[in-house]
Specification:
By secondary structure, the protein is of the alpha+beta class. Helix content is 49%, strand content 17%. Strand 6 and strand 7 (267-271) form a beta hairpin. The two termini are 22 Å apart.
Length: 737
C-alpha cells in the first residue's frame, strides 16, 4: 500500500524541470569499452515508478544492437550495453523523446542534486502553507459574515485572497504544472494532469466569481490543495535521496586510486577502473584493496572483516588471493590483479544493491495500475459531470463549477497522505527511541517478515576482541609496552585493558609472527605461539603469547564479546514465533559459540557475500519473508536483497544506506521496531480503507451537483485531517510483539 502513495502523491514524471538534453555534452565521449561491449551510464530525471522503468528500458532495448538496459529507480542511473555502431546520442534521444530528462552520468555526482530538489519542494511547501493560513483567515471572515456582509466587503476579501493565491499558485504549483506539460506534449498523462487542471480551473472560476460579485470563491481550496499534495511530494523526495546514498558510498570506495607498478618497477597512481587483469599492484600498509588480487611477494597481516566478517586478521602468503575491501595492516604487498575493478567483490556487491532496488520496485506495481486507472477516471468523471449538467440545461458557469468540484473532491489527498502521515508518526516514535527509519515502504515489509538472519560480528557481538583472562598486573604492563607499537586488534585490546603507558625500546614488528623489544634491558616478545617457541597445537587463533627472556611464556585469550541485550532480544523474537539463524563469514568456532550461547540452532560460518545472498534466496523461495540484520560490507548485498533489513548505528556507511532502518539504542530496538511496524501497517490499512470509502461517497455527491468547489475542498481537507488523526494514534499504542 505504501507504494500506492509513490504515484498518487508524487506523480510521474517529476514536476521539477528536467535537464535540457540539447545542452548536454556529447554522450559519445562517455562511452566505455568493456570486454568487447560499449557501455554508457546516463542520469535520468523524472522516473518515479515501475512503469517508468518498463517504458525507458523497453525503448532502449528496442534500439538495434542493444544487449542490456537497466534503470535503477533510486539512483536515477541507466546502464546500457551494446555492440556495433549504435550512437550514444541515439540512446539519449530515445529516452528524452519519452519526456524524461537525460544526461551523461557524472561519476563525481553527489547528493547535491537530490538536496536541491528536496530544498525546492520544502520552499514550495512552506510558501503554500503560509498562503493557505492567510487565505483561510480571510475565508473564515467571509463564512462568518455570510448573509450580513456587504458585496463590496466580500469582493474586497476575495480580491485579497486572489492576490495571495496567484503568485503562490505560480510558484508552488510549478512542480505539478511542469510535470503535466512534459507528459502532455508527448502524448502521455499522469496524476499531475488532473491536479493542474483542478488548480487552474478553480482559480479561474474564483476570479470570475470575484469579478461578478458572486458569493463564493475558491482560492482557499486551490492553495490548500497544493499544500497537501506538496507534503506527499516532499516526503517522496526525501526517501529517494536517502536511497541514493548507498550507491554513492560504494562508488566512492570502488573508484579509489590504485598503485600500479610498471615493468621497470616505477609506481603510478591510477583509478581502479583503469586496472586490467594481470597488472602489478602495490598495496601499502593501511591501504584497502579495491580490486581482487593475488599476492606475488611480501609478508604481512590483513584484515578482511569488511568482506568476510572474520574477526581475526590473517597472515598472508605468496599465492594468496585478496578480495577487494581487504585492508593491509603492516608490511607492503605486491601482487597482480585477478580481474578488472568491474569484476571485483565490490562490484558484485554494487550489483546486489542494484538488484535489491529493482526487486523492491515490484511493490510499486499497485501504484502503476492505480495511475493507469485513476487518471482517466478523474478526467472522465469531471468531463461527464460538466457535459451532463450542460445538456440538462444548467448554465456554463454552474456546470463548470460542478466539474471543478468533481476534480477537487476526487483529488487523492487522503489516499496520498494515508501512508506518508503514518510513516512520519511511526518514524518520529521510533526516532525518539533511537531508531531511524529510512525506506519509504519499510514499515509494511518489516511487519510482514517471519524469519530473521543475523550477522555475527558487530551485530550479535561487539565486533572487537576483548581480553578474557585474568593477567597479573606486572605481566600485563610489560606486554602492553610492546602492544602499544602495533595496530593488531589483539594488541589494541590489550592496550585498552592496560591503559596508557610507555613503549618498549627498539620495538620491531615481524609480519605473521609478532613483536620484539627491550623492557628493562631484557628482550621480550609478543605474538604467535611459534614466535615464543610454544607448540602451535597448544594454542588457538584467538590468543597472543608473551615471553620475557627465558621465563615461561604467558598466554592471552581473546574473545568477541556477546552484546548484553542479545539474549533478551533473541528470546523475545523466538516467543513471537520468528525463525532465525546466524550467517557469518567468521570462523566456525567463533560462530558456533555465539549461536549456542544465544540458543540459535541454525548457523553457518565462513559465508561469503554471495553465500548470504544465496541463502536469502533459498528462504524466500520457500515462502519466507526474511529480515536481515547486519553491519559489514559483506552484508550489504544481503541487506539490499532481503524483504526488509536493519543495521546498527555503528555499521559501515554502505550497510546503513542499504538497510531500511538503523538503530542505536541496543539490540532490543529490533523487537520494538517490528512491533511499531505491525501497528503502523494496521493504521495504514485503516487509512486506505477510509480514503476508499470517502471517494465512494464523495464522488456521487460532487457529480450530482450537491457539492460546490468550496464544499469539495472542505471534504477533501477533512478526509486528510481524519487520516492524520488516525495516524497519531500510533503514539499511544503499547509496544508488544
Amino acid at each position: 500500500m505504501m507504494a500506492l502513495n509513490d504515484s498518487l502523491s508524487a506523480g510521474c514524471p517529476t514536476g521539477l524541470a528536467p535537464p535540457e538534453t540539447t545542452n548536454a555534452p556529447d554522450s559519445s565521449a562517455f562511452v566505455r569499452r568493456v570486454g568487447g561491449q560499449n557501455r554508457l551510464g546516463l542520469t535520468i530525471r523524472g522516473a518515479k515508478c515501475g512503469a517508468c522503468i518498463n517504458r525507458i528500458e523497453s525503448a532502449v532495448k528496442a534500439l538495434p544492437d542493444v544487449e542490456t538496459a537497466r534503470l535503477n529507480l533510486s539512483t536515477g542511473t541507466l546502464d546500457v550495453a551494446w555492440r556495433g555502431d549504435l550512437g550514444a546520442n541515439t540512446i539519449v534521444l530515445a529516452v528524452s523523446t519519452l519526456g524524461y530528462g537525460v544526461s551523461p552520468q557524472d561519476q563525481s555526482r553527489n547528493v547535491s542534486d537530490e538536496q536541491r530538489e528536496e530544498r525546492s519542494l520544502l520552499i514550495a511547501l512552506g510558501v503554500a502553507g503560509f498562503a493557505t493560513a492567510n487565505i483561510m483567515l480571510l475565508s473564515v471572515s467571509v463564512w462568518a459574515g455570510h448573509g450580513e456582509m456587504g458585496e463590496a466587503t466580500r469582493r474586497m476579501l476575495h480580491g485579497i485572497s486572489g492576490l495571495i493565491a496567484f503568485p503562490t499558485i505560480l510558484f508552488s504549483g510549478r512542480v505539478f504544472f511542469r510535470s503535466a506539460w512534459n507528459v502532455l506534449k508527448r502524448g502521455h498523462a499522469n496524476m499531475d494532469v488532473p491536479i493542474s487542471l483542478a488548480v487552474i480551473i478553480a482559480f479561474c472560476v474564483s476570479v470570475s466569481e470575484t469579478v461578478r460579485g458572486g458569493d463564493h470563491a475558491y482560492f482557499d481550496a486551490t492553495v490548500m490543495l497544493l499544500f497537501f499534495l506538496l507534503i506527499g511530494r516532499f516526503l517522496d523526495a526525501r526517501v529517494r535521496r536517502k536511497a541514493y546514498v548507498s550507491a554513492r558510498e560504494l562508488a566512492a570506495m570502488a573508484n579509489r586510486t590504485v598503485t600500479r607498478l610498471a615493468e621497470d618497477g616505477q609506481a603510478k597512481s591510477v583509478r581502479a577502473s583503469e586496472i586490467e587483469p594481470g597488472d602489478r599492484i602495490l598495496l601499502s600498509p593501511g591501504e584497502c584493496a579495491v580490486v581482487d588480487m593475488k599476492i606475488d611477494s611480501g609478508l604481512s597481516e590483513v584484515d578482511d572483516s569488511l568482506v568476510t566478517g572474520e574477526s581475526v586478521p590473517r597472515t598472508t602468503f605468496v599465492g594468496m588471493s585478496l578480495l577487494a575491501g581487504t585492508v593491509n595492516l603492516s608490511q607492503p604487498l605486491q601482487g597482480r590483479a585477478i580481474g578488472a575493478a568491474s569484476d571485483s567483490l565490490l562490484s558484485d556487491i554494487a550489483r546486489m544493491l542494484d538488484a535489491g532496488e529493482q526487486r523492491r520496485s515490484t511493490y510499486r506495481k499497485i501504484a502503476d495500475r492505480a495511475v493507469s486507472l485513476y487518471v482517466p477516471f478523474v478526467h472522465t468523471s469531471a468531463l461527464l459531470a460538466f457535459l451532463g449538467w450542460l445538456m440538462a440545461g444548467l448554465g456554463v458557469n454552474d456546470a463548470l463549477l460542478i466539474g471543478v468540484s468533481t476534480l477537487i473532491i476526487t483529488c487523492p489527498c487522503a489516499l496520498a497522505l494515508a501512508a506518508p502521515v503514518t510513516q512520519v508518526v511511526a518514524s518520529g516514535r521510533l526516532f525518539r527511541s533511537g531508531t531511524f527509519l529510512k525506506s519509504g515502504d519499510a514499515l509494511e515489509r518489516l511487519a510482514q517478515c517471519d524469519y530473521v538472519i543475523f550477522d555475527k560480528t558487530g551485530t550479535l557481538t561487539l565486533g572487537t576482541p576483548r581480553l578474557v583472562d585474568e593477567i597479573a598486573p606486572d605481566i600485563l604492563s610489560n606486554a602492553a609496552q610492546l602492544a602499544r607499537a602495533s595496530r593488531h586488534p589483539f594488541s589494541r585490546a590489550l592496550v585498552e585493558i592496560a591503559g596508557p603507558g610507555p613503549i618498549a625500546t627498539g620495538v620491531r614488528e615481524f609480519p605473521g609472527l609478532g613483536l620484539e623489544g627491550v623492557i628493562d634491558g631484557v628482550t621480550c616478545r609478543l605474538g604467535s605461539a611459534e614466535w615464543v617457541s610454544v607448540n602451535p597445537s597448544h594454542t588457538t587463533s584467538s590468543s597472543l603469547w608473551f615471553a620475557k627472556d627465558d621465563e615461561r611464556p604467558i598466554q592471552f585469550h581473546f574473545a568477541d564479546h556477546i552484546l548484553d541485550d542479545a539474549i533478551e532480544t533473541i528470546r523475545t523474537l523466538q516467543r513471537a514465533g520468528y525463525g532465525m539463524e546466524v550467517l557469518s563469514g567468521d570462523r566456525e568456532e567463533a560462530v558456533s559459540d555465539v549461536a549456542e550461547t544465544l540458543g540459535i540452532t541454525k548457523w553457518r560460518a565462513k559465508a561469503s557475500p554471495r553465500d548470504k545472498v544465496q541463502r536469502l534466496e533459498e528462504l524466500q523461495a520457500k515462502g519466507h519473508r526474511v529480515l536481515m540484520v547486519g553491519d559489514g560490507l559483506n552484508d550489504a548485498g544481503a541487506l539490499a536483497l532481503a524483504h526488509a533489513s536493519v543495521a546498527p548505528g555503528g555499521a559501515m556507511d554502505i550497510s546503513r544506506s542499504a538497510s531500511d532502518a538503523v538503530y542505536s539504542g541496543g539490540l532490543t530496538s529490533l523487537p520494538r521496531l517490528i512491533s511499531v511496524a505491525k501497528q503502523a501497517r494496521v493504521v495504514m490499512l485503516q487509512n486506505f480503507g477510509f480514503a476508499a470509502a470517502y471517494n465512494l461517497v464523495a464522488v456521487p455527491i460532487a457529480i450530482s451537483g450537491h457539492a460546490t468547489p468550496l464544499v469539495a475542498a472542505i471534504a477533501m481537507s477533512a478526509s486528510s485531517i481524519l487520516v492524520s488523526l488516525n495516524a497519531l494514534r500510533l503514539n499511544t499504542m503499547s509496544e508488544r510483539l
